[in-house]
């Protein structure tokens, strides 16, 4: 199959843990993992190198638990472990479709994942393997949004693609307000000044300091990942 024209050479795809719920109330929907694997396999055929960071909110949200009395560091470590579970589920779905995949964890757990070593991750990607970064940054008090921005910068990705349940970034919640306005383009400064919910403060700041573009797109749209890696997303671009 011939490769289609690509806009990016290497991308970081940020997936929320909640997306892995599918039609469930808790845990991982294998059907959704399979659908993601199909899309990622198609995206690879465009010639782009793909790294992925997944949240863990479908299993455990560290910050939410800390607001209810749990020690914040303990809660965050539990959330990091949840991301490893999601990473392994996606790896399994991808490898069943003959896509070579490696899970690299920021927390050492050699029985289930390789340790995160930047040069090793780069070699995997150069060989066409999908690399899934698990366990966030390996440190409490940092979200998977920040982990995504950090890994994107470390891996010299051309763009950070954030998949959401809405078509882009709005001036207010589009689910609650029918007159919400979607932005086509934003600057990092506008995102910070207007306190728009693109990613958390540290993630946006890290992207800004390293001139890393962020594209927010609707994961549920048809061929959303393929369009995003090809630069054809109709979402919101932050740069």
CATH superfamily heading: Acetylglutamate kinase-like
**What's the alpha carbon Rg, rounded to whole Å?**
17 Å
Q: Round the mean pLDDT to the nearest integer and report it.
A: 93
Task: Bin the helical content.
Answer: 25-40%
CATH architecture: 3-Layer(aba) Sandwich
Q: Pairing-aware structural class of the strands and helices?
A: alpha/beta
Number of domains: 1
Quote the CATH topology: Carbamate kinase
Total beta strand runs:
11
- Regarding quaternary structure, what we see is single chain
Distance between the termini: 33 Å
Number of helices: 8
Main β-sheet description: 9 strands, mixed
In sequence order, what are the helices and strands, one letter per element? EHEHHEEHEHEEEEHHEHE
Unreliable segments of 5+ consecutive residues: none
CATH domain class: Alpha Beta
Major β-sheet strand ordering: 4-3-5-2-1-6-10-11-9
Q: Give the CA-based shape.
A: globular
């Amino acid at each position: 199959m011939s490769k289609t024209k690509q806009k990016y050479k290497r991308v970081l795809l940020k997936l929320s843990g909640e997306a892995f719920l599918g039609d469930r109330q808790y845990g991982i929907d294998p059907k959704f993992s399979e659908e993601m694997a199909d899309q990622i396999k198609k995206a690879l055929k465009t010639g782009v190198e793909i790294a992925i960071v997944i949240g863990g909110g479908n299993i455990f949200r560290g910050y939410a638990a800390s607001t209810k009395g749990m020690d914040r560091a303990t809660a965050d470590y539990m959330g990091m472990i949840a991301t490893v579970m999601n990473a392994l589920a996606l790896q399994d779905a991808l490898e069943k479709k003959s896509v070579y995949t490696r899970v690299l964890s920021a927390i050492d757990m050699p029985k289930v994942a390789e340790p995160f070593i930047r040069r090793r991750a780069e070699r995997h990607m150069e060989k066409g393997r999908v690399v899934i970064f698990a366990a966030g940054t390996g440190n409490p008090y940092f979200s998977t949004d920040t982990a995504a921005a950090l890994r994107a910068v470390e891996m010299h990705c051309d763009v950070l693609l954030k998949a959401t349940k809405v078509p882009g970034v709005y001036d207010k919640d589009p689910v609650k307000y029918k007159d919400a306005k979607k932005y086509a383009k934003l600057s990092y400064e506008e995102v910070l000044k207007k306190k728009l919910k693109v990613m958390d403060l540290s993630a946006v700041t890290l992207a800004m300091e390293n001139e890393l573009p962020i594209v927010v797109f609707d994961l549920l749209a048809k061929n959303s990942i393929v369009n995003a890696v090809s630069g054809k997303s109709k979402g919101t671009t932050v740069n």
